[in-house]
Amino acid sequence: MIYAGIDVSSKSFVVHAINNRNKVVFDNSIMPTKRALQKLLDGFGKETKYIVFEAGNQMKWIADYFLTRKDVVLHIVHPNEIKWINQSKKKTDQIDEKKLAKLAKGSILPQKVHVVTGVARRLRELAASREQLQSKRVSLINTVRGYVKQEGLRLPAKFFKSIEWKEKLRKSDLSETLKQIIESFMIAIDGLIEAELKITTELLAIEDERIKLLETIPCIGKLSSRVIVGAIDEVDRFENKKSIAHYTALTPRIHQSGTELHLGRIDFNGRREVRKILLQCAHTIVRTKNPDSKPLRDFFERISKKRGKKKAMVALARKLIVVAYGVLKNNECYDFRVLQAA
Asked: 0.70 cut: is pTM over it?
């Protein structure tokens, strides 16, 4: 068995590899290409290669290549799980990969990062790109509002969604210079709205049985169900409902020393896009009056009386992902009577 740690960067891959006898068989950098990776693996011979690297923006294509090799055992680690390496006093790429290789040989690496494939990957990539477009659009809108405030005026909220914004801008009391600036920004904003709509259409066109199951849960609609499926992918990879709540950034930080246990604020290390959309669903549930959502509303009211509405809303979002976990795990539609009996 060959154990290899790889530091991934855009310019080069730093590789440190050892064998079962702790002998260094490779300690150098290679080009960041598939051909270079193939040459590296072939140079190790017929032995099984245990490859370790940190998750990053090049993870997709690197993982795809390694997964095509029958002689490779792939282990991708999350950077947050190995902070002690990044925070070491003596830190270089060579040292980092040497540590990863030795951890692999000792079978003490942290849990693997799940590599998403198929429908879930498409959903995740489309949802992420939609969120990026949305974020940039909101940023530009806020910039325009900032410009307008400098002249002591305000634009109505509907201005940015109106197809008649040019006419409204022409009739406004803004200076000619500012009108020209805002017109330029609005062209960019319109372009982002169009791109976002296109991505959303492609996202909603994807069908999957898991999506249909999630849509039976109150206030989880077409968009939110697809975001959740894209993030969760294989529900069986989660040990229990606590692990999926932690994965979706809906569990508190825990500080324990001796007999003292303190629960802190929500830990944001997780799929924040799922947390965000579940909170939106939770807000909708509180305002909904249909019978199917009554157990969830009752749960919110109980927590709200004890801990306040803000904490109750987060608790309801966590309840929703637990319900989603149960629906997917059992492959059954949502049934409000099950929650009432619990």
From this structure: yes
